[in-house]
Amino acid sequence: ERTNIIELLKQLVTNFKMLYPDFQFIVDDDVKEDLFVNMYRNHLEQVFVNILDNAVKYSMDRKEVHVSISSSGEQVDIAIQDYGSGISEEDLSKIFNRFYRVDKARSREKGGTGLGLPIVKELIESYGGQVHVNSQLDYGTIFRIQLPVIEPESLPET
Ligand code: ATP
Ligand code: MG
After folding, report:
1. Quick one: which ligand is closest to 115's CA?
2. How far is CA 82 from CA 14, 24, 137, in A?
3. ipTM associated with this complex
4. Cys staple from 84: which of 32, 58, 99, 116, with CB 3.0 to 4.6 Å?
């Protein structure tokens, strides 16, 4: 199954803008043409919804989320950056573990199970992609997703 990743991301950002009108979502797309990945649309949607949901949930005063899209031709690179609570180096190594939540009490107030990121990692890696995270406590976090791009003609669109 092939999914237009650019179109999907823009649609999700539109939805998030409606849901969180006090947030600024800034999309910065170097890529002008459409890009397709070999991934079920609803799987890719789960990935980006989880990361965008975290960006909103763990932001504080600076309600700003940057989404940038770039492509090397063979690969598409999506970065989602927030200016929220950030994650310490010690916690960073654990956030992809099932049910892990930083600072249990504070995270509990926010709601959630701690399954978002393990699902993100599982899904992306099962399609031959990679997920990386950089974060600085009290400054913010950036998630990067890389996925192989496919030729638009090679698979039927859904
Ligand atoms: P769920 O996604 O299941 O609703 P969750 O958001 O707590 O719950 P994950 O998405 O797996 O679970 O994230 C794990 C933990 O990593 C979070 O509880 C939070 O402490 C931390 N975290 C994730 N994303 C961010 C972010 N953008 N900024 C700061 N902390 C984050
Ligand atoms: Mg989450």
Report:
1. 1
2. 17, 10, 12
3. 0.98
4. 58
Q: Work out the average pLDDT over 64-93.
A: 95
Mean pLDDT in residue range 105-109: 67
What pLDDT sits at residue 103? 77
149 lines ligand 1 (CB under 6 A): no
Pick the atom of ligand 1 nearest to 107's CA.
18
From the number of C-beta atoms within 10 Å of its C-beta (0-12, 13-18, 19+), residue 104 rates as: exposed
Q: How far apart are CA 123 and CA 116, in angstroms?
A: 11
Return the beta strands (E) in 11-150 as ranges.
24-29, 36-37, 64-71, 75-82, 130-136, 140-150
Distance, first Cα to last Cα, the chain: 7
Q: Find the DSSP H helices in 28-146.
A: 41-57, 89-92, 104-110, 116-126
Reported as a single tens digit per residue, the pLDDT across 38-78 is 999 999 999 999 999 999 999 999 999 999 999 988 999 99
Is 16 a pocket residue for ligand 1 (Cβ < 6 Å)?
A: no
Whose Cα sits closest to atom 25 in ligand 1? 54
